[in-house]
Amino acid sequence: MEKGKEKEKEKVRVLLVDDSTYIRTVLGSIITEAGFEVAGEAADGEEAIRKYMSLKPDLVLMDVIMEPMNGMEAMKAILDKDPEAKILMVTVLEDKDILADLMRIGAKGYITKPFSKDKIAEKIKEVLGE
Ligand SMILES: [Mg+2]
User: Fold this and answer.
1) Exposure b/e, 85-110, CB count within 10 A at least 16 = b
2) 3 state DSSP class of 48
3) How far, in Å, is the centroid of ligand 1 from the Cα of 21?
4) Structural domains in the chain plus CATH codes
5) Which of 89, 20, 21, 17 is nearest to 57 (CA)?
6) Rounded Cα–Cα distance for residues 67 and 3 (Å)
7) How far is the CA of 93 from the centre of ligand 1 (A)?
8) Half-sphere exposure (Cβ direction) of 122: Cα atoms closer than 13 Å
9) 19 CA distance to ligand 1 middle (Å)
10) Ligand 1 mean position, distance from CA 20 (Å)
11) What is the pLDDT along the chain (130 residues), one digit of tens a residue?
12) What is the whole-number distance in angstroms between the Cα of residue 1 and the centre of ligand 1?
């Protein structure tokens, strides 16, 4: 598909959640370059819940390890309020049990850090069924 054609579609709005400002910035440029839009940013779980409810993004990229509320708790709370929420976890964790837990709770998938631009874009498209 030609890149230019994607502009005609309404852009997918993504909420970026990570306690690292640097990672949010990197994710922001990756998703913008991939043709998506940054709906907003949050630095911990509670802020993620608030921003999710006010911004109603199409998708959430959610870090797992954050203080005081981590990404797993935030995902549970968001899915409680909106069972249709599409949440992709972005994590350094490679523990199979934890990753399985994230999927069981309702994550649409996970991306392990360090991530690449291609991996992020591919995973987002997969979750959106494109
Ligand atoms: Mg973190």
Assistant:
1) bbbbbbbebeeeeebeebeeeebbeb
2) helix
3) 10
4) 12-127 (3.40.50.2300)
5) 17
6) 38
7) 10
8) 7
9) 5
10) 6
11) 555 555 556 899 999 999 999 999 999 999 999 999 999 999 999 999 999 999 999 999 999 999 999 999 999 999 999 999 999 999 998 899 999 999 999 999 999 988 889 999 999 999 998 6
12) 35
Q: Tokens 């990404």 — which residue?
A: 71
Two tokens, residue 125? 């498209």
Residues pairing with 90 in the sheet: 63, 111
Q: Scanning the structure block, which residue is given the tokens 């913008």? A: 32
Q: Do you know the residue count of the chain?
A: 130
